[in-house]
Design a protein that fits this description.
This protein has about 60 residues and is mainly α. The protein has a domain of about 40 residues. Helices cover about 50% and strands about 0% of the residues. It has 3 helices and no strands. α1 crosses α3. The radius of gyration is 14 Å and the shape is flat. The relative contact order is 0.14.
């Protein structure tokens, strides 16, 4: 299963337990590894050039 599928599900609010039930071929450690991978891709060293606000400004 692609990492993007796991991360997309988590981003949409799917609980880890639900992911594991829906995709019995993956393990809890696999989900954790996907999260760690995403964290590695996130900007480091106060590089805020790619950080998006959680709540876009209205109007």
């Amino acid at each position: 299963m692609p990492v993007a599928v796991v991360l997309d599900n988590l981003a949409q609010g799917v609980e880890k337990a639900e992911l594991l039930r829906s995709y019995p071929s993956i393990k809890s450690e696999d989900v954790d590894a996907c999260i760690e991978y995403a964290a590695e891709l996130a900007p480091k060293n106060n590089d805020t050039s790619r950080i998006l606000p959680l709540f876009p400004k209205e109007g």
